[in-house]
Specification:
The complex is a heterodimer of chains A (301) and B (274). With 301 residues, chain A is an all-alpha fold. Chain A is built from 14 helices and no strands. In chain A, helix 1 packs across helix 14, helix 3 packs antiparallel against helix 11 and helix 13 packs antiparallel against helix 14. Chain A is flat and about 70 Å long. Helix content of chain B is 73%, strand content 0%. Chain B contains 13 helices and no strands. The chains are: A mainly alpha (301), B mainly alpha (274). The interface between A and B is large, with 98 and 91 residues.
């Protein structure tokens, strides 16, 4: 018995030694702070007392004061619009463009590379470039739209309550779609040509081919792309922050930017922690779907 | 059966429109950066006069030389640390069936899905405590954590494709475990290492939220912070801002061209969407 344990330990010790450093870092820099963050959501933490070793527990007070603030509910509503619009547009456009690029085309490689540009450009750069294009005085969108006669005077796209959120959503769709496109394109390349041929012989038209053959075969990819897009969209700080900072008057505020402001502008760290715990719950549910899918794919054995 | 010409034309038109939308902001960034200031409010696409003045301005008076250096320091250190840890862990996960190994892998994957804001708040408190606020070292630490999960998965998946016989042969020849990894396995796994390294670099290079929260000194700004600082409250020099954007983008495009082939395969498990 003892020798067997010893042998087993010997066999695994080296393995544990190899993975330990990475795990320690993840524990120290992700899990421990995360637990701290959750704790802080039940404590009274402000700029003045944050360096002290312990804070008074206040029960659900942070959550209650967050729920009582109408700004929070504006952010929740905007987060819903923001997430759904991004998700639907990115999945639909990503699939449509992947189908387009999966066909036989001259210069196919060139078209594919160009379509990936938004994904490669650093997100801060992409956001600031769009901010310049939206500019109220010299932006190319205003200049060209008014030349075409579509608008009769320049619109302050990012400073207008009605347009700000949608302007940011358009940038985010532009930036996020290519990633979905690549996922769909590589899945489409996995469908053998015989499948299409057989369907054509059976008299499928193009629409039936899409709804009865391609979409069912891409079900798994659609599910993975959906979860990843959700996680990314809920975590997308740069787009909103660098274009509007959630303004004007919270018109483009999402939960993430709202939590950030409560934390680092008002320095009400307890309330901000409560908002981020709520976001965490949302993301945890979504990620557990994703992890379940990776697991079923047999990627873990 | 030959497709009708109208189908062929509409196919090309649709593809061209899609590519135009994808490429336009990128082109516009570059064209703005080479136009003289007085041309910026004109509707013409191409510059009437080409100038690289904005690059000179942003590099020296805009202090982008300093910011570029800071970004390089942060990204290189992040890559080195994350990669070293990821290679060891990825090798361990691929070569040993560890009890609890599956749970650890799931935990690593899960840690990448956290809302960054949930970490930003305790980080702020902890970094203040450990005097890491307003230091590049603090950024390296934070970026390493966010680069580590993906690179560990990438390395593990790559090592799984390297046959076990190689390790055994090396160990029969007298190598230790680490010796086998260093002398035999790593050279074979070079494409995987390259892909993981470039992922780490890009992640650290592009990071904005934590830098914006933790860095307040001007001389410690990274490139994304430098770009943000060019936005003025009342007016913005867009020529300079776009020149700075081109400078920020160039290294990333370069790296992308190097790993283009390995990029897509690492995506599914890795789940980077930035």
């Amino acid at each position: 018995m003892r020798t067997r344990l010893k042998a087993a330990w010997k066999a695994y010790a080296a393995g544990y030694a190899l993975v330990l450093p990475a795990l320690l870092v993840i524990f120290a820099v992700v899990l421990y702070p995360m637990v701290q963050g959750i704790r802080m959501s039940f404590q009274n933490v402000t700029l003045l007392n944050m360096s002290r070793p312990d804070h008074a527990f206040v029960g659900l007070q942070n959550y209650i004061s967050v729920f009582r603030n109408p700004d929070f509910w504006v952010a929740v509503r905007n987060t819903g619009v923001w997430t759904i619009a991004n998700l639907v547009a990115q999945i639909v456009l990503g699939l449509a463009f992947a189908l387009l690029l999966n066909q036989r085309l001259r210069l196919q490689g060139l078209f594919r590379s160009i379509s990936l540009i938004p994904w490669i450009v650093p997100s801060v750069v992409a956001v600031l470039t769009w901010r310049w294009m939206y500019d109220a005085n010299n932006g190319v969108i205003n200049i060209w739209l008014s030349r075409l006669g579509i608008i009769d005077r320049f619109i302050h796209w990012l400073g207008n309550m009605k347009t700000a959120l949608w302007a940011v959503i358009i940038e985010s769709i532009w930036k996020g779609t290519p990633f979905v496109l690549i996922m769909f394109l590589s899945a489409l390349q996995g469908i053998p040509a015989q499948v299409y041929e057989a369907a054509a012989i059976d008299g499928c038209n193009n629409l039936q081919m899409l709804t009865r053959i391609i979409i069912p075969m891409l079900r798994r990819t659609i599910a993975i792309a959906t979860t990843l897009t959700l996680v990314y969209t809920l975590n997308n700080f740069n787009a909103v922050w660098l274009m509007t900072q959630g303004g004007p008057l919270h018109a483009s505020e999402i939960m993430l930017t709202y939590a950030y402001k409560v934390a680092f502008r008002d320095f009400n760290l307890g309330n901000a922690a409560a908002i981020s715990v709520l976001m965490f719950l949302l993301l945890a549910i979504i990620s557990s779907f994703y992890i379940g899918m990776v697991e079923r794919e047999g990627d873990l054995s | 059966m030959k497709p009708r010409w109208s189908t062929v034309v509409s196919k090309y038109v649709a593809t061209a429109v899609m590519c135009a939308i994808a490429a336009f902001p990128f082109l516009w960034m570059f064209l703005t950066s080479v136009k003289p200031a007085y041309e910026l409010n004109k509707p013409n696409f191409w510059p009437q006069h080409w100038t690289f003045q904005a690059y000179a301005d942003v590099w020296t008076t805009g202090r982008f030389f300093q910011y570029f250096l800071n970004s390089v320091i942060v990204a290189v250190l992040t890559t080195a640390i994350a990669l070293a840890l990821a290679v060891l862990a990825g090798y361990g996960f691929s070569r040993y069936r560890l009890p609890g190994g599956k749970a650890m892998l799931i935990l690593i994957l899960f840690s990448q899905m956290f809302p960054a804001i949930l970490l930003a708040i305790p980080y702020f408190v902890l970094m203040k405590k450990f005097m890491l606020l307003d230091k590049l070292a603090g950024l390296v630490l934070v970026n390493t954590t966010f680069a580590l999960p993906l690179s560990t998965w990438t390395m593990r998946n790559y090592f799984l494709t390297v046959p076990l016989d190689l390790d055994e042969a090396a160990m029969v020849d007298g190598c230790t475990r680490l010796g086998a990894l260093w002398r035999v396995i790593l050279p074979v796994a070079k494409p995987g290492v390259m892909a993981a390294a470039i992922f780490c670099f890009i992640q650290a290079w592009n990071e904005f939220m934590f830098a914006n929260t933790f860095i307040s000194q001007e001389k410690l700004r990274t490139l994304p912070l430098g770009l943000q600082s060019l936005i003025g409250q009342y007016s913005t020099d867009w020529g300079m801002l776009m020149a700075g954007s081109v400078i920020t983008t160039l290294p990333i495009v370069l790296f992308f061209l190097i790993v283009q082939k390995n990029l897509v395969s690492g995506l599914a498990a890795g789940s980077v969407k930035e």
